[in-house]
Automatic annotation (TrEMBL), chain B:
Superkingdom of origin organism: Bacteria
Protein name: Thiamine pyrophosphate-dependent dehydrogenase E1 component subunit alpha
Molecular-function GO terms, alphabetical: magnesium ion binding; pyruvate dehydrogenase (acetyl-transferring) activity
Keyword line: Oxidoreductase, Thiamine pyrophosphate
Cofactor: thiamine diphosphate
Sequence ranges assigned to domain Dehydrogenase E1 component in this UniProt record: 19-316
Taxonomic path: Bacteria, Bacillati, Actinomycetota, Actinomycetes, Jiangellales
Coiled coil start-end: none
SUPFAM superfamilies named in the record: Thiamin diphosphate-binding fold (THDP-binding)
Record-level GO BP terms: pyruvate decarboxylation to acetyl-CoA
Length: 338, 325
């Protein structure tokens, strides 16, 4: 075990993956010489050389597409997309090419590609550099989606993604890059895709969180007057239905904590499934705590309000438990929303 | 009180062009200080060293022309006429900001001077300028659209698609690439197959010029030639401005990846010093007047900073505005 920041855990995972398999290559903007804008590929160039660690022009469609082709023909590329939003200019290669190559070749070509991208608000980067974007990918059969919630999951999910024979999108909440924790590396540190983690035990409610909301949900539960099972979903496609259902069966209440717009969020999938499977066993309506349906605003007090805070989660969960009814979100209480 | 439009019209006067470049330089210095002080959050991309491109461009365009620009847009916004307090207000996330503080440093916009919301996605503004050119062509009149972007953006598909589209539709668009030799931490030679980006126009049978981007009147003259072609219905032009950013790419970056002496060499051809010297030599201003101008600019920006520091932050309800018509 070593104490690592999340960005260092990513570098460590990449280095271990590259040592394990000579077919692993790392491609992205400023990943080689500068070691990444978020320093998540630091040291790779020195150890593995320019052949396997490549800086690119600002050509996301070109280099992500090249990675698809390389993946289909023998390499195991890991592409860094500095900010998830930049996938917008390369989306065809990911959702329309990579995700369908295996299907359209009747299994003759697989795409063992990993795409890493930073996501999320909280750093004052404004509307075009602060979104979460899981929902760009989760309705695309053929892709897998994992989201890191700290150094260990960043390491473990990435190692699993690189070993996986299908395209995996690994999202890294950028405000967590600097957070440090003990990390188990090597095979023991690998986290199977599709497995959620129950982080705490509690009787009153199950809080399902993902990525950046995991520490928020955890902290909200830690100091609360109710007991929660905090579940880090870790993988969104495929998601761990059994673990979530087991937990909610025990607690009788589900609150999904999401960063991102209320409408169309990933939590709708979790909430719908739980409501449908556990109909009659629930003590309260399934509930989602999310951001409002707005682009991420820049000004500090606005951005702070946009992301679900510890206090807000606590307040929403508390009200749900107390009243048995769905709490209204802050924006509708304050009449801010038309 | 003067308006953004007055500030724009003033640029016909050479002394005003000098003063505006000084204003941008002073402004960017303050943004850097405020960032390190922690009152500007997120990120900033400064344009110190590139002032002549912004001012030469603005001096030539009409307020009804359309401009798309990048995150490195403080200079273009100030040159086009946006009030320094509104630009700084946006960068500091205050209600007095150009868009009330929801945008930030990378998202400046003022329709009265033709500035569309600046783009934080590399290449994002290039096709949008082509569309603005389409409006100009279809709606009649002789307004034009201008896309301002960096050397790194010429490697993204949107650049190539846009040049071709503007060429085949013969649109009134001027593509202005600020070739400052770096895209983030990468020197142009490591990412780009050609050194002179003007040659890229050749693939689209489009005229192009390579311009000394440190000489404001050279920039203005080249933009005028391109804009006249566009207004006359002769289609798009690519202008490559050779320039340099003194600061690093963003935030705390100091540019350690740059070879020794490179920054100093460019500072030896500083756009403000070059223009001040030229105006003094031509007898337009005296050296004393140049100094006075600089002090006046410093004083004015001092006031702007003091004013914006006092300006209120927006209420959370502000995030719900302007999502739909
Ligand atoms: C599509 C996309 N990819 C990457 C980035 C990250 N990024 C922001 S600015 C920049 C460098 C751009 O260089 P250049 O076009 O030369 O403009 P400059 O910053 O030098 O003005 C990069 C890579 C981005 N914003 N958008
Ligand atoms: Mg550049």
């Amino acid at each position: 075990m070593t104490k690592l920041r999340m960005n260092q855990a990513v570098s460590a995972a990449l280095a271990d993956a590259m040592r394990e398999d000579p077919a692993v290559v790392v491609i992205g903007e400023d990943v080689a010489v500068p070691g990444g804008v978020f320093k998540a590929t630091d040291g790779l160039l020195a150890e593995f050389g320019v052949g396997r660690v490549r800086d690119t022009p600002i050509s996301e469609m070109g280099f992500l597409g090249a990675a698809v082709g390389a993946a289909a023909t023998g390499l195991r590329p890991v592409v860094e997309i500095m900010f998830g939003e930049f996938l917008g200019v390369a989306l065809d290669q990911l959702v329309t090419e990579a995700a369908k190559l295996r299907y359209l070749s009747a299994g003759q070509y697989g795409v063992p590609l990993t795409v890493r991208a930073s996501v999320g608000a909280g750093l004052g980067f404004g509307a075009q550099h602060s979104q979460c974007l899981e929902t760009w990918f989760y309705a695309t059969p053929g892709l897998k989606v994992a989201v890191a919630s700290g150094p260990q999951t960043a390491y473990g999910l990435l190692r699993a993604a690189v070993r996986d024979d299908d395209p995996v999108v690994v999202l890294e909440p950028r405000r967590l890059y600097g957070g440090r924790a003990e990390v188990v590396t090597g095979d023991d540190g690998i986290i199977a895709l599709g497995s959620a983690e129950v982080r705490t035990a509690g009787d009153d409610v199950t809080l399902v969180a993902l990525g950046g909301t995991v520490p928020v949900a955890q902290e909200a539960a830690d100091g609360a007057g109710w007991g929660a099972e905090v579940v880090d979903l870790r993988t969104l496609v495929p998601w761990d239905v059994a673990t979530v259902l087991d937990s909610v069966r025990r607690t009788g209440r589900l609150v999904v904590v999401e960063e991102g717009p209320f409408s169309g969020g990933w939590g709708t999938e979790i909430a719908a499934r739980v409501a449908s499977e556990l109909f009659g066993e629930l003590r309260a309506p399934v509930h989602r705590v999310t951001s409002p349906d707005v682009p991420v605003p820049y000004a500090k007090p606005l951005e702070t309000r946009y992301v679900p805070t510890v206090e807000y989660v606590r307040e929403q969960v508390g009200e749900l438990i107390e009243t048995g009814r769905t709490p209204r979100p802050w924006w509708s209480r304050e009449g801010a929303h038309r | 009180m003067s308006t953004s439009l007055d500030r724009r019209v003033a640029l016909r006067d050479p002394t005003a062009r000098l003063e505006r470049m000084m204003e941008i330089r002073e402004f960017e210095g303050r943004v850097k200080d405020l960032f390190f002080e922690g009152v500007v959050s997120g990120t900033t991309h400064l344009c110190e060293g590139q002032e002549a491109v912004s001012v030469g461009l603005a001096a030539t365009l009409r307020p009804t022309d359309h401009v798309t620009c990048t995150y490195r847009g403080h200079g273009v916004a100030l040159a086009l006429g946006c009030e320094p307090s509104a630009v700084l207000g946006e960068i500091m996330g205050r209600t007095v900001g150009l868009v009330g503080g929801v945008g930030g440093s990378m998202h400046l916009s003022e329709r009265a001077v033709g500035l569309m919301p600046t783009f934080a996605i590399v290449g994002g503004g290039i096709p949008v300028a082509v569309g603005a050119g389409l409006s100009c062509q279809v709606l009649g009149g002789d307004d034009v659209a201008v896309a301002v972007f960096g050397d790194g953006a010429t490697n993204i598909g949107a650049f190539h698609e846009s040049l071709n589209l503007a060429a085949v539709w013969k649109l009134p668009v001027v593509f202005v690439v600020e070739n400052n030799l770096y895209g983030e931490y990468s020197p142009i030679a490591s990412t780009t197959a050609v050194t002179d980006l003007a040659v890229r126009a050749g693939s689209y049978a489009m005229p192009a010029e390579t311009v000394d981007g440190q000489v404001v009147d050279d920039v203005a003259a080249a933009v005028r030639r391109a804009v006249e072609r566009a207004r006359g219905g002769d289609g798009p032009t690519l202008l490559e401005m050779k320039t340099y950013r003194y600061s690093g790419h963003s935030r705390a970056d100091t540019g350690p990846y740059r070879p020794d002496g490179e920054l100093e060499a460019w500072q030896g051809r500083d756009p403000i010093a070059l223009y001040a010297d030229a105006l003094v030599a031509a007898g337009t201003v005296t050296a004393g007047e140049v100094d006075a101008l600089r002090s006046a600019v410093t004083e004015r920006i001092d006031e702007v900073v003091a004013e914006v520091r006092q300006a209120p932050e927006p209420d959370p309800s502000a995030m719900f505005g302007h999502i739909h018509a």
